[in-house]
C-alpha cells in the first residue's frame, strides 16, 4: 500500500508559500526568507549543526523537493520523538546520483544472481557437511566392529584421532555456514533496498509506474474477491510544456512536485497515487464508484487551480497551474489495461473540452 503524510503548519507542505513554487500574492523574496526561517528554526529547535549536509537535507524537506523525507520528519515531530544527528543521517542517507530504470533493473538482476549463488553455496556446504557426517559415521561403525578383534588401545587411539578430526571439520563447516548465512542476509537486505529504490520516483517521492502496476494487479484480485468497486484515474498537468519552455526544466520539476503534493494528500489505505511518467499521474480508488472517484479528484483539481505560482529564482509569474483528469471503472473492462486506456481516453476528452476538468469514461 502507499500512504503519504502531509506536513502541519511550519512543516514540509504547510502552505502554498512553502511549496517549491511560490504563490503569486507573496513576493518571491518573502517566500525565500520564509523558507530560510523554516530551515533555521528546524535546525535550532532540534539542536542540529548548521553544516552543509544538514542545510541541504533541511532544504530538501522544507522546499518540498523530498516528500518522503518531509513525511518522516512530520511523523517524528507529531509523535514528539527525538530528531538528532543520528536520526537525521538515518532518515536522509547520502544518495547516489539518480539512476535510470534500466540501471535499477540491472542492479536488481545482479543482486538476485548473487543471492542465488549464495543460497547455492549454502546448500552445497550443507550437502558436503552431510556427506562428511555420513563418512565419519561409517568410519566409527567400522571401528566399533573392530573393537572385538583389535587391541583396545589401538582402537581407542583411532577413535580419539577420528573424533578430533571430526570436531575440527565440524568447526570449519560451522564457520563456512555462518559466513554463507551472513552473506545471504546482507544480500537480501540489499535486494530489498534495491527493489524499493526501483519503485520510487525520486523527483516526487511517489511510487512510480512499475510499483503502481504491481498494486493494480493486487487490488484487482482483492476487489474481485470482495465484490468491491475499483476505479482508475489518470491526470495530466495542463500546458506543462509552456512552463518548461518559459521557465526552464528546474521550475518544471518544482511544478510536478507541487502537483504531486496535492495528489498525495488524497492518498491512503483506499487510494493509491503514483507518477506515471513525465507530467502524468495515475490513481487507483478502492471502494469508490466512478462518480465518487471523479468528485475526489475534482476537489484536488479545484484546490490546485486556486493557487497562482511564481518562479522562485526569477520572481517571474508562472500563473495558474491546473491539471485535467479521466476516470474509468476497472471492472467495466475485461482487462485492467483496457480500463487504463478508457481513463486515458476520458483524459483526452477533458483536454479537448478546454482542460482543467475531470471527465468520466
Task: Tell me what you see in this structure.
- With 361 residues, this protein is α+β, with helices and mostly antiparallel strands.
- The chain has 3 domains: 16-91, no CATH class; 101-198; 209-360, Reverse transcriptase/Diguanylate cyclase domain (Alpha-Beta Plaits, 2-Layer Sandwich).
- The protein has helices at residues 28-45, 52-62, 67-78, 85-91, 101-146, 152-198, 209-226, 240-247, 249-264, 290-305, 336-352; strands spanning 22-23, 230-237, 271-277, 280-286, 308-310, 317-320, 323-329, 358-360.
- The strands form 2 sheets. A 5-stranded mixed beta sheet has the order 3-4-2-7-8, sandwiched between helices.
- Helix 5 runs antiparallel to helix 6 and helix 8 (240-247) crosses helix 9.
- Mean pLDDT is 79; it is low at 1-27.
Strand content: 5-15%
The overall number of domains is: 3
Average residue-wise pLDDT: 79
User: Over all CA atoms, what is the radius of gyration?
Assistant: 30 Å
Q: In CATH, what is the homologous superfamily of the largest domain?
A: Reverse transcriptase/Diguanylate cyclase domain
Query: How many DSSP E strands?
Result: 8
